[in-house]
Amino acid sequence: MRYRDLDDTSGCPNHGPCEQCGTEEDVYTSTFQSWCTGVFCLRLCENCTDTIDVRLDVLTTMNRVWEHCDHLGITVDEMADISGIFPEENELGPSPGRCSP
Ligand SMILES: [Zn+2]
Ligand SMILES: [Zn+2]
User: Fold this and answer.
1) What is the rounded end-to-end Cα distance, in angstroms, of the chain?
2) Contacts made by residues 53-62, CB under 8 angstroms, sequence distance 24+
3) Is the distance from CB of 28 to CB of 44 less than 8 angstroms?
4) Span 89-98, pLDDT tens digits
5) What is the rounded CA–CA span in Å between residue 100 and residue 66?
6) What is the pLDDT of residues 48-60, one digit of tens each?
7) Between the CA atoms of 57, 58, 63 and 65, what dihedral angle is there, to the nearest 10 degrees?
8) Which-ligand-closest: CA of 38?
9) Cα-atom radius of gyration of the chain, to the nearest Å?
10) Are 70 and 41 in contact (CB under 8 A)?
11) What are 10-60's pLDDT values in tens digits?
């Protein structure tokens, strides 16, 4: 498995307005760990980065994660491996608690 820094935003779109409030000033791409789904990126201004409550619906989050996989040049499966969403099954079964909010 190739290791990849899931928080690497160098491949993410680095232009465009804040996705929360639409400003074009001090906008950066940040990564967020979604609940049990993977890592995704959002374009946010400094203000919104501090205040945003990143709770997207499941479908949106999944799409976001897919897009960010694309930015990273990895597959969703690889991201899952790297972030440990699907722990390798062993005799004890998947380790519990991985997906606790
Ligand atoms: Zn904003
Ligand atoms: Zn991205």
Assistant:
1) 26
2) 61/34, 61/35, 61/37, 62/37
3) yes
4) 544 444 444 4
5) 21
6) 988 877 677 888 8
7) 110
8) 2
9) 15
10) no
11) 999 888 999 999 999 999 999 988 766 789 999 999 999 888 776 778 888
Tokens of 27: 């906008």
pLDDT confidence tier of residue 100, bands split at 50, 70 and 90: very low
Tokens of 98: 């991985």
* Length of the chain (residues): 101
Show the tokens assigned to 67: 């897009």
Q: Which ligand is nearest to the CA of 19?
A: 1
Partnered with residue 31 across adjacent β-strands are 41
Ligand 1 centroid, distance to 6 Cα (angstroms)? 23
Helices (H), 1-101: 46-51, 58-72, 76-83
Where do the DSSP E strands lie in 1-101? Answer: 27-33, 39-45
Whether the model clears a pTM of 0.70, i.e. scores above it, the answer is: yes
Query: What's the confidence (pLDDT) of residue 33?
Result: 85
Nearest ligand to the C-alpha atom of residue 65: 2
